[in-house]
Design brief:
By secondary structure, the chain is mainly α. It has 3 domains: 62 residues, no CATH class; 93 residues, DNA polymerase, domain 1, CATH 1.10.150; 184 residues, Intergrase catalytic core (hpI Integrase, Chain A), CATH 1.10.443.10. 53% of the residues lie in helices and 8% in strands. The chain contains 16 helices and 6 strands. The strands form 2 sheets. It has a 3-stranded antiparallel sheet, with helices on one face. A 3-stranded antiparallel sheet has the order 4-5-6, with no helix packed on it. A hairpin with a 5-residue loop joins strand 5 and strand 6. Helix 3 packs antiparallel against helix 4, helix 7 runs antiparallel to helix 8 and helix 8 packs antiparallel against helix 10. The chain starts with 7 loop residues before the first strand and ends in an 8-residue tail after the last helix.
């Protein structure tokens, strides 16, 4: 604390004075002070505030006054943590090191939080209010579909919960908000089974007719990938992250690490699928060992989801299938086919790795749509001449 050397000015606040009156009195005092000064606070009490003013700095009196007299009561200030970019960076590191979130989730969080920051236009968490959050959510609804909006809100809420957990927030502004909106039910897109069979037949034809070792090995790997997608209903990210020790081909059991790094096991029930996986493993053993991933390319690097997407596009084109097919549609087809075969939905939930059965129940809508289609075309009442 600097000692008083020259001029001293005292401002007294009465309990009866409102904040605006008090501010006017202080600003009046400022007019009597030279442009260059430094300010040190000796004491701030409920009824009075004493300033010692001495020549030195270029900080404006109003900035100082507003910073110290009217701080946001709900947020504790941290000199090095007020910068939002720093907070976001620290949060992402926390998600990576402590929560062990995968790279894809971290990338989505980073995109969402940077978008949030650009909209808020603030470098200080003290500036963020409930009304600003409401405005941000309103803008999201104008630009994105409900599912995307829900994810972006979840990213921001998780970030603020982190700030609360780290005691950087006394009160989380999200806690005052009741965010609820209805998402339209979008039925999962499935692949007709005849198209699945056509894709697999095309791959095996390519394998049998391959003219070079390179073509044969690629077709062998592609057959293993598509067979496993359809046999297990696993996500494309789960397939690409499979390690060599995650698959036991002796008993046909696969260990899958799903969302949130949750483990689940699924059994391969078809001997033809186990057979093609065994042939692939034997042929690609060196590449698999080199990258420690079960699915690899011929350069010994892990297979990516983009490679699988291109693979599917290649064979749908050769098979003259006009439907646009994605890896996730094999998962939808897996679930819907089992449901239509009267498999208990709780077993399907477990095989898909859904955290809630409510998520799995979306496939019941698909099954009902199938029923409507059958009854609309096959029911004998349609042939009555009345």
């Amino acid at each position: 604390m600097a000692k008083v050397q020259n001029q001293k000015s005292q401002v007294v606040s009465s309990k009866e004075m409102n904040e605006m009156d008090y501010l006017n009195d202080v600003l009046q005092c400022e007019k009597n002070i030279s442009n260059n000064y430094s300010i040190a606070i000796d004491n701030i009490q409920e009824s009075r505030m004493i300033f010692w003013i001495q020549s030195n700095t270029a900080v404006t009196f109003l900035q100082f006054f507003m910073y110290h007299i009217f701080p946001n009561k709900h947020i504790q200030r941290r000199s090095t943590m007020d910068n939002m970019q720093t907070l976001i960076k620290n949060y992402l590191e926390y998600c990576d090191k402590q929560k062990c979130l995968n790279e894809k989730t971290l990338k989505a969080y980073k995109i969402d939080l940077n978008q949030f920051l650009s909209h808020i236009c603030s470098s200080d968490i003290t500036d963020i209010s409930t009304s600003m959050l409401e405005d941000y959510i309103g803008e999201l609804h104008k630009k994105y579909k409900p599912k995307t909006v829900k994810r972006k809100i979840a990213s921001a809420k998780a970030f603020f919960h982190y700030l609360e957990y780290k005691e950087l927030l006394d009160i989380n502004p999200f806690n005052k908000m009741h965010i609820k909106f209805r998402e339209p039910v979008i039925l999962p897109k499935t692949i007709p089974l005849r198209n699945v069979e056509s894709i697999l037949s095309t791959i095996y034809e390519q394998l049998n007719c391959a003219k070079t070792t390179y073509q044969r090995r690629n077709s062998l790997r592609d057959a293993a990938v598509i067979e496993l997608l359809f046999a297990t209903g696993m996500r494309i990210s789960e397939l690409c992250s499979l390690k060599i020790n995650d698959i036991n081909l002796y008993d046909g059991c696969i260990l899958i690490y799903g969302k949130g790094n949750k483990e689940r096991r699924i059994q391969i029930g078809n001997t033809s699928v186990i057979s093609i996986l065994s042939k692939y493993k034997d042929d690609f053993y060196s590449e698999i060992a080199n990258c420690n991933h079960f699915f690899a390319n011929q350069c010994g690097r892990p297979l990516t989801d983009q490679t699988v997407r291109r693979m599917i596009n290649k064979y749908t084109s050769i098979a003259a299938i006009t439907q646009h097919i994605t890896p996730h549609m094999f998962r939808h087809t897996f679930a819907t086919s089992l449901l239509e075969a009267d498999v208990d939905i709780r077993y399907i939930q477990e095989m898909l790795g859904h955290s809630s059965i409510n998520i799995t129940e979306i496939y019941t809508h698909v099954a009902l749509a199938k029923q409507r289609s059958i009854l609309a075309t096959k029911h004998p009442r349609n042939n009555f001449n009345i």
